[in-house]
UniProtKB/TrEMBL annotation:
<dbReference type="InterPro" id="IPR050490">
    <property type="entry name" value="Bact_solute-bd_prot1"/>
</dbReference>
<keyword id="KW-0813">Transport</keyword>
<protein>
    <submittedName>
        <fullName>Multiple sugar transport system substrate-binding protein</fullName>
    </submittedName>
</protein>
<dbReference type="Pfam" id="PF13416">
    <property type="entry name" value="SBP_bac_8"/>
</dbReference>
<dbReference type="InterPro" id="IPR006059">
    <property type="entry name" value="SBP"/>
</dbReference>
<keyword id="KW-0762">Sugar transport</keyword>
Length: 429
């Protein structure tokens, strides 16, 4: 069991952390906050700037970052620290992972009245993002952002193909047939592919696009503890079939992995790219003429797969009340100063940021910001969420469908059986 070994492994696990920010803080009257997160690369640089700005603007706290390896290693270390009495004052988790942690007592709930004192309320967030932070009637996470799966496109190719509207945006498509028509026009302009989409050996990529189309058809997935998974078969199969249409080795190649798809789009070999908002800095650095929008609503209901980076309070048996209060102040300061987080491509969750007139000037961030209103997180279960095995398991069944034309119905059935096996097991944390 994971938690049974927490005390023995805790110090060794933490030995691989990378400390950033100031190593020393101000005087003893200042609350010294330990802040863990899993943000590296460009995200890590932006977060370091937000933390530094919050530290400089406040004399009552000083936050020191610890950056750990993304994915399973991070979540394992966070669980061990909470169970072993060595939890940091604050941490960042994906909102989709909260159902696996909060019920087991690894997180402490947020005090709504204290949040309100620092200007953070339900009205500060889009409804779906705020609601995702709750387990039953207690708030366990406060989102910094939404990072949905979106559509990016080469604006020069779109103009050449004649598929820009009067506002200079890619024309709206409302059916699979319309989208394929636009993709073929973009293929003609690029001289190679209409669409880039990488998925080989990447369950998360397969899940993000499949789940987007599945939710557009109002498909539901229910994962009752100790019960059997429910997946709506018709939309599940239709979603696979449409992805097969796109991956016809004409509109889009059926053999791209994630990195190859990025390179294909960045080098001008395709006109449209299905990707996460986090790839926007890549496009900007390449000086690509790029536009953006939510994934088109092709099956009736606006929907987009997404997750959120969210602040949590790892469980402390006897929290220092002064430090806990300053942790609230710190989160409020980060949220209120999160305009720069949009530069990393993410959609800031704090509504006053996205309603700022300056945000409307950001391109293409302002054009896909509406995705925050239609986001769909992983179905809640202890084994779902970013960095979990759930999306990898989905990929085991999805890849043969997309790569070699395997039967979509058989893939759905196999995936359901694997979920049933997980539902029969207890949450290890």
């Amino acid at each position: 069991m994971l938690l049974g070994s927490a005390a023995a492994l805790g110090s060794a696990a933490l030995g691989s952390t990378l400390l950033s920010g100031c190593a020393t803080g101000p005087g003893s009257n200042v609350a010294q906050l330990k802040f863990w997160h899993l943000l590296s690369g460009g995200d890590g640089v932006v977060m370091a700037g937000l933390v530094e700005a919050a530290n400089e603007a406040n004399t009552t706290f000083h936050a020191t970052q610890t950056v750990l390896t993304w994915g399973a290693p991070y979540y394992t270390k966070l669980a061990m620290a909470s169970a072993g009495g060595r939890a940091p004052d604050l941490a960042v988790m994906h909102a989709s992972r909260i159902p696996g942690y909060a019920p087991g007592g690894l997180l402490d709930p947020w005090d709504l009245s204290l949040l309100r004192e620092f200007g953070v309320t339900e009205q500060s967030f889009p409804a779906r993002i705020w609601e995702k932070g709750f387990i039953d009637d207690r708030l366990y996470s406060i989102a910094l952002d939404a990072h949905p799966f979106v559509m990016m496109y080469n604006t020069d190719y779109a103009e050449q193909a004649g598929v820009l509207d009067s506002d200079g945006k890619l024309v709206e498509t409302t059916s699979p047939e319309e989208f394929i028509e636009v993709a073929r026009a973009m293929q003609g302009a690029s001289g190679n592919r209409g669409l880039s989409y990488g998925y080989l050996n990447d369950g998360a990529q397969m899940w993000r696009l499949w789940y987007t189309f599945y939710r557009q058809m109002e498909g539901e997935i229910e994962l009752p503890v100790g019960g059997e998974a429910r997946i709506d078969e018709e939309p599940a199969v239709r979603s696979f079939e449409f992805m097969q249409q796109l991956l016809d080795d004409d509109i889009a190649t059926s053999r791209n992995d994630y990195a190859t798809a990025v390179a294909e789009f960045v080098s001008g070999q395709s006109g449209i790219f299905f990707t996460g908002v986090w790839e926007l800095p890549t496009m900007k650095n390449a000086e690509l003429p790029v536009g953006g929008a939510p994934i088109p609503t092709l099956f009736g209901t606006p929907a987009a797969y997404a997750d959120s980076h969210a602040f949590v309070l790892p469980h402390q048996t006897q929290p220092d009340e002064k430090k806990r209060r300053e942790a609230y102040r710190f989160v409020a300061e980060i949220l209120k100063g999160s305009f720069d987080w949009a530069g990393a491509g993410h959609i800031p969750a704090y509504v006053p940021i996205t309603e700022d007139p300056a945000y409307a000037e950001l391109s293409p961030q302002a054009d896909y910001a509406g995705a925050a209103e239609i986001i769909n997180y992983d179905p809640p279960a202890w084994f779902t969420g970013s960095g979990s095995d759930f999306q990898n398991i989905f990929g085991e069944f999805a890849q043969p469908v997309l790569l070699s034309g395997a039967d979509p119905a058989a893939a759905v059935s196999g995936f359901r059986q694997r979920l049933n096996a997980l539902l029969s097991k207890p949450n290890p944390v």
